Amino acid sequence: MKILLVDDEPEILRLYQELLEGNGHEVTAAQDGREALQCLDRKHYDLLVLDLYMPVVDGFEVIGEMKNRGEKIPIIVMTGHFPDDVVAERIRGMKVQEVLRKPVMITTLLNAVNRVV
After folding, report:
1. CB of 39 within 8 A of CB of 30?
2. Beta-sheet pairing, 26-30 with 2-6
3. I need a surface site. Which of 9, 12, 29, 56 has the fewest CB within 10 A?
4. Which domains does the chain carry?
5. Alpha-carbon distance 8 to 84, whole Å?
6. 0.85 exceeded by pTM
């Protein structure tokens, strides 16, 4: 499966990329929402795993832009701000399949990826 993984924390990005690749997935890593949108312009992905709160372009903006483009890619979001009424309200209706609270355990991420696909 082709996964676009987006997080502004380099260590987390590297760890999750290695984990997902070690489980047979093809992973493209992006460090912010702007880079993620550029990746989406160039390639089709089967899944987006996305941090919500990032500098430059945040995860909410990425999801909103995907919706504007008519993208139908399943989304797993990761955030340290959940459960939070603001987060819940902003992601409602955005085709988010899973919300994972950071820090995300490795097994939790793998289980979420398997459930979504």
Report:
1. yes
2. parallel
3. 56
4. 2-116 (3.40.50.2300)
5. 21
6. yes
